[in-house]
Write a structure and sequence with these properties.
heterodimer; A: 304 residues; mainly alpha; MetI-like fold; two-stranded antiparallel sheet; 13 helices; 2 strands; B: Rossmann fold; OB fold (Dihydrolipoamide Acetyltransferase, E2P); six-stranded mixed beta sheet; five-stranded antiparallel beta sheet; 18 strands; elongated; binds adenosine-5'-triphosphate; binds magnesium ion; MetI-like_sf (chain A); cell inner membrane (chain A); sn-glycerol-3-phosphate transport system permease protein UgpA (chain A); UgpAE/MalFG_permease (chain A)
Chain lengths: 304, 357
């Protein structure tokens, strides 16, 4: 930045308010919401994560980092971590691959393009718990339509007893909802690729599949990376409703993700201190993911 | 090395837009054919039909004696330079040029040889590892050219390749393209709306208007004998002076009654418009001895535009506005009454429909 006049360092002229109070008043609602719904609970979680409380709330004891040590050494917690990773990766893959496929196909449609797009975006408006119920019904071992079909194919379908099947079910429900969102971004990403690039590639002798893998897919990399982060965050933190409706974390602990475990330990088992420690760990994970998103999505993966 | 023939080619877009109407064109081996015309006249459409990027509604496109209507862009053995260059942004300059060769499963050493040879020709050798976004406009343009020449195709297609460059670079690249095309001897079609570019590059110039071909010929031939009013006004800068004649007179009288002086000057009865290029008009002074102009017209000077090597005098004859081009500086002042003259051989006469007589 070059300094002009040498008085102020601001590269962008700063808005000057004659009234000293007004700017703070204008910011107040946003600050209040952030404080009440984020900083307050976050600080409470941090505080509680260092206490040990009995289930009836009669005695509280300061224990420092003991809760964290205990949680991180707990095989159940590590198992939950593993479940979450599997769940997040599977959800991201199954939410992104079909979305990309649909977007590429929708991009080729000339007539009625708008209708296809609108219809494909609708599932996003369905509430997570409803989406979960829908899948639960479809796959219910005794009354579900798809469960019947699966059984007639010779698959013994019982997600209430079979852990991997339960996982498949929650992944399907979580990914299904996210496909619409990803679809929207992929469509926008595809539209941003100049048509002449694809034409140049076809003159250069690349067939349709080749064009996709060597030109279109690499140019979608920024979009894909962005969606990968978004979908991972979604799978980590936004799927409570679905898991709660479909499996409740079971059978056993087969679908108990980290977020679900916070709920189970805190509100069901009333181990408040450890539950708080878990949510602090989750908070660190969110911050890390957001940092990755800011650092790479907004800067690095960019073609010009 | 190939010829390119268009036979009765027509294009109707969905929605019944007739973008190209019955174009017939034969381009001999090694010639550079320039399509020129105003915006929306169908130049790009025609080029894209040759490339195979647009379907052909009617007619035939023949490359090297083979009808290519049903062949895809890859099988026609053509290379195209796009207006925005269409370089692959995620590939290095080297990979941009090699892409088409790799797709054709050429051996690696041969690819390398060709890419380096083209890079040397285009002075890109030191830029091979860069991405397109790290290049200047002129360098990108060169890479786009390189991508076309490594393929060694039968036909080059250019769609306004220089329109994103500044005036100076455009002039420079124009010369380079011409030299390159001539030395490679590849049959080429070049689209532009810049008539100067068209005049200087073309072996064959095709002037288009509203989906029709108005005239085909050598650039100077078209300049000297424009086949229609449209061509007369489109080719040449500043454009030809066009004066409306009083209909059915057969005498050189303008619509407003102004008479053009001159002995034995008579036009056919169909003559509707008289055209004279600015440089074919000259000032007639009282003491001009000997050479007497075939036609003279009295005008009132309105404005002078000196541009250095030459000056343009704008003046009115009755209701008609004329431009006269004179060498160097001029001593005429605005408001002065002057007499301009022209030789009969330099007069262009057009009929009611705008056709040359
Ligand atoms: N995909 C399309 N669908 C319908 N009409 C089209 C399409 N592409 C072009 N046209 C129409 O066809 C006509 C010719 O277009 P074209 O692009 O060939 O013009 P052009 O001579 O290249 O003009 P410019 O100098 O502005 O590039 C125009 O009227 C345009 O509106
Ligand atoms: Mg065009």
């Amino acid at each position: 930045m070059t300094k002009v006049g040498g008085q102020k360092d601001h590269p962008v002229p700063r808005a000057i308010f004659p009234n000293k109070v007004l700017p703070y008043l204008l910011l107040a609602p946003q600050l209040a919401i952030t404080a009440i719904f984020f900083y307050w609970p976050a600080s409470q979680a941090l505080y509680q994560s260092m206490l040990r409380e009995d289930p009836f709330g009669l005695s509280t004891q300061f224990v420092g980092l003991a809760n964290f040590r205990h949680v991180l050494a707990d095989p159940n917690y590590l198992h939950s971590f593993q479940v979450t990773i599997i769940f997040a990766v599977a959800t991201a893959v199954f939410a992104m691959v079909p979305a990309l496929y649909l977007a590429v196909m929708a991009d080729k449609v000339v007539r009625g393009r708008g209708i296809y797009r609108t219809l494909l975006i609708w599932p996003y408006a369905v509430a997570p718990a409803i989406a979960g119920m829908l899948w639960l019904f479809l796959f219910n071992p005794s009354i579900g339509t798809i469960a019947v079909m699966l059984r007639s194919l010779g698959i013994s379908w019982d997600p209430l007893l079979n852990g991997p099947q339960a996982m498949i079910l929650v992944v399907a429900a979580a990914a299904w909802k996210q496909i619409s969102y990803n679809f929207l971004f992929f469509v926008a990403g595809l539209q941003a690729i100049p048509k002449s690039l694809v034409e140049a590639a076809s003159i250069d002798g690349a067939g349709e599949t080749k064009r996709f893998w060597t030109i279109i897919f690499p140019l979608l990399a920024p979009t894909s990376f962005f969606l990968l982060v978004i979908n991972t965050v979604y799978a980590f933190f936004d799927t409570f409703g679905i898991i709660h409706a479909v499996t409740g974390g079971g059978p056993g602990k087969a679908t108990e993700t980290l977020v679900y475990k916070v709920y189970n330990d805190g509100f069901v088992n009333l181990i408040l201190g450890e539950s708080a420690a878990q949510s602090v760990i989750l908070m660190v994970i969110v911050i890390a993911l957001t940092a990755v998103q800011f650092r790479y999505v907004e800067r690095r993966v960019h073609y010009g | 090395m190939a010829t390119l023939d268009l036979k009765n080619v027509r294009k109707v877009y969905a929605g019944a837009v007739e973008a190209v109407k019955k174009v017939d064109l034969a381009i001999p081996d090694g010639a550079l054919c320039v399509l020129v015309g105003p915006s929306g006249c169908g130049k790009s459409t025609l080029l894209r039909m040759i490339a195979g990027l647009e379907s052909i509604t009617e007619g035939e496109i023949v490359i090297d004696g083979r009808v290519v209507n049903d062949l895809g862009p890859a099988e026609r053995d053509i290379a195209m330079v796009f207006q925005n260059y269409a370089l692959y942004p995620h590939m290095s300059v080297y990979d941009n040029m090699a892409y088409g060769l790799r797709n054709r499963r050429m051996a690696k050493p041969e690819i390398d040889r060709r890419v380096r040879e083209a890079a040397a020709t285009l002075e890109l050798a030191h830029l091979l590892a860069r991405r397109p976004r790290e290049l200047s406009g002129g360098q990108r343009q060169r890479v786009a050219m390189g991508r076309a020449i490594v393929r060694n195709p039968k036909v080059f297609l250019f769609d306004e390749p220089l329109s994103n460059l500044d005036a100076k670079l455009r002039g420079q690249m124009r010369v380079e393209i011409k030299n390159l095309q001539r030395s490679l001897g590849v049959t080429s079609v070049y689209v532009t709306h810049d008539q100067l570019e068209a005049m200087t590059l073309a072996d064959i110039l095709v002037v288009m208007n509203g989906g029709n071909v108005e005239q085909i010929g050598a650039p100077l031939e078209i300049y000297e004998k424009p086949a229609s009013l449209f061509v007369a006004s489109f080719i040449g800068a500043p454009p030809m002076n066009l004066l409306a004649l009083k209909p059915g007179e057969g005498r050189p009288v303008l619509v407003d009654g102004t008479t053009i002086g001159g002995e034995g000057l008579s036009f056919s009865k169909e003559a509707a418009t008289l055209g004279i290029r600015p440089e074919n008009l000259f000032l007639v002074t009282g003491d001009s001895n000997g050479s007497r102009p075939d036609a003279t017209l009295d005008i009132v000077v309105q404005a002078i535009e000196p541009v250095g090597a030459e000056s343009f005098i704008y003046g009115d004859a009755g209701k008609e506005r004329l431009v006269i081009r004179v060498a160097g500086k001029t001593v005429v002042e605005p408001g002065a009454k002057i007499r301009v003259g022209a030789n009969a051989a330099d007069l262009h006469i057009f009929d009611e429909a705008g056709k040359r007589i």
